[in-house]
Amino acid sequence: MSSFKRIAALAMGAAVALGATMAVAQDMKFFRIGTGAAGATYFPVGGLIANAISAPPGSRPCSEGGACGVPGLVAIAQSTNASVANVTGVQNGTMESGIASADIVYQAYNGQGQFEKKYDKLRVIANLFPEHLHLVLPKGAKLDGIKDLKGKRVGIFSAGSGTQVVVLELLKLYGITKNDIQAAETNAQQSADRLADGQLDAFFIVGGTPVAAISQLAATKGMQLYSLSDEERAAFLKVVPYYYDAAIKAGTYEGQTEDVNTVGVGAQWVVSADVPEDLVYEITKALWNDSSRALFDAGHAKGKDIQLSTALKAVNTPLHPGAEKFYKEKGLIK
């Protein structure tokens, strides 16, 4: 073969390889899921969802034991400051989807509470799992009521989180503002570490049980959870109606021998209205297939609560048309 023919053959081979690479790149779709801090619940659950709905180009077919997600989709769980940051990211287009508590989703969509304008691009894919408000104290500590937090060093969770929003609402009922406490805007792991080191007197987090950072704290330094009184829960539920009475069952954390009375809220997966209907339909379908069920059951304690039967529970914000189409096919919507 002449030098010219060898060069031509190499060039043709390179062009074919480049064309194949470009085809794969063009077929690949990236899909971000805003979650939360690594020590809380949104991040590991978001990772499970990302795994469930992904099927990168070139992966083995589902029928052969490979990925059972959306063909060509690469979903990524992105660590954020949780609910408020996630709905803001979806509205602004810096992420395609995110996990957020139901109250934050509803307020953002309707321009209520801290949201000065309506987040009109928010749409719901599914209600995922219940979350509980935790008020964590050092082992052996006494707290006679929420009012006694005044003047204390209190972790109120990260700025931009749903936890901080509801904590400030709860404290407000007892005449306590951020200026009346030594507020620490720390995530779950940072809060647990500071409580263990004696730098905090208490910290709050709204999360699906068990929260990893609290489990680690309970197993090492020890801790206890504050049980809200009937009066405290009733007063809170009057101003934050998206929550409901809930209990953290005994044995959820090491050393927890009794149920802890508190309040709960649903965690919802929201997506931008700009994401095409057919893509969200395929994502919703992948979320609820048998392969995903097995992944959720084995992957995280809260994964077992992600059930098709409760996918529409307390969803008061519009569904994405792609998700709505799927639920109609399943008979969940008439």
Assigned CATH class of the largest domain: Alpha Beta
CATH architecture of the largest domain: 3-Layer(aba) Sandwich
Order of helices and strands: HEHEEEHEHEEHEHEHEHEEHHH
CATH superfamily of the largest domain: Periplasmic binding protein-like II
Distance between the termini: 69 Å
Describe the structure.
There is one protein chain. With 334 residues, the protein is an alpha/beta fold. Strands 1, 4, 5, 6, 7, 8, 9, 10, 11 and 12 form a 10-stranded mixed beta sheet that branches. It has 2 domains: 28-129 and 268-329, D-Maltodextrin-Binding Protein, domain 2; 132-266, 3-Layer(aba) Sandwich (D-Maltodextrin-Binding Protein, domain 2), CATH 3.40.190. It is built from 11 helices and 12 strands. Mean pLDDT is 91; it is low at 1-26. Helices cover 37% and strands 21% of the residues. The protein is globular.
Brief description of this entry?
The chain is of the alpha/beta class and 334 residues long. It has eleven helices and twelve strands. It has helices at 3-27, 42-53, 83-92, 102-110, 162-172, 188-196, 212-219, 230-239, 277-287, 290-299, 321-329, and strands at 29-34, 54-55, 70-71, 73-78, 97-101, 122-138, 153-155, 182-184, 202-207, 223-225, 244-248, 260-272.
Topology overview:
Layout: H1 3-27, E1 29-34, H2 42-53, E2 54-55, E3 70-71, E4 73-78, H3 83-92, E5 97-101, H4 102-110, E6 122-138, E7 153-155, H5 162-172, E8 182-184, H6 188-196, E9 202-207, H7 212-219, E10 223-225, H8 230-239, E11 244-248, E12 260-272, H9 277-287, H10 290-299, H11 321-329
